[in-house]
Amino acid sequence: GTLMGSRTCVKMAAAAWGSGFLYSVLHTANTFSITLCQGNTVDQFFCEIPQILKLACSDSYFTEVGLIVVGVCLAFGCFVFIVLSYVQIFTVVLRMPSEQGRHKAFSTCIPHLAVVSLFVSTVMFAYLKPPSLYSPALDLLVAVLYSVVP
């Protein structure tokens, strides 16, 4: 209540839910529009879009590029929002007169920041690694790191 009102919180939650819903609808519509010619078995922990596109009969280059562009834009927006939020939080915490209060606030924020960093770094590795590093076992490990561990 000190940093933002309930109206702002509702707007932020609605923006997160709305963008997540639209992004999932985009992926779902794309997934159902492609034809699979190599079966429907995905050698992965769960159905990732790049793994499904590898099973497609048609050339999925433009589809993949479009999905990556939309995903990068959404991810960049989320990343900027998270960084700006942490800057604001750390600014307020550093102004606290009590050292015990600062310690308690930092001990709450640092684990969340560690989880966000793990998630962002493993997702970046999964989606931006060169094709020469392709390995089903490595893809599975990275998928577990960014989906289960956080």
Structure write-up:
This protein has helices at residues 6-33, 49-54, 61-94, 99-128, 136-147. It starts with 5 loop residues before the first helix and ends with a helix. The protein is mainly α and 150 residues long. It is 73% helix and 0% strand. The protein has a domain at 59-130. The radius of gyration is 19 Å and the shape is elongated.
Quick overview of this protein structure:
It is a multi-pass membrane protein. The protein is mainly α and 150 residues long.
- Spell out the helices and strands N to C: HHHHH
Integer-rounded radius of gyration: 19 Å
For the biggest sheet, the summary is: none
| End-to-end gap | 27 Å
Please indicate the percent range of residues in DSSP E strands (runs of 2 or more).
Answer: under 5%
The residue-averaged pLDDT reads 80
What is the overall number of helices? Answer: 5
Class by helix and strand content?
mainly alpha
What helical percentage do the residues reach? over 70%
Got a strand count?
Answer: 0
GO molecular function, one term: G protein-coupled receptor activity
Keywords: Cell membrane, G-protein coupled receptor, Membrane, Olfaction, Receptor, Sensory transduction, Transducer, Transmembrane, Transmembrane helix
Subcellular location: Cell membrane
Transmembrane segments: 68-93, 105-127
Helices, strands, pairings?
Elements: H1 6-33, H2 49-54, H3 61-94, H4 99-128, H5 136-147
Subcellular location: Cell membrane
Main location: membrane
GO molecular function: G protein-coupled receptor activity; olfactory receptor activity
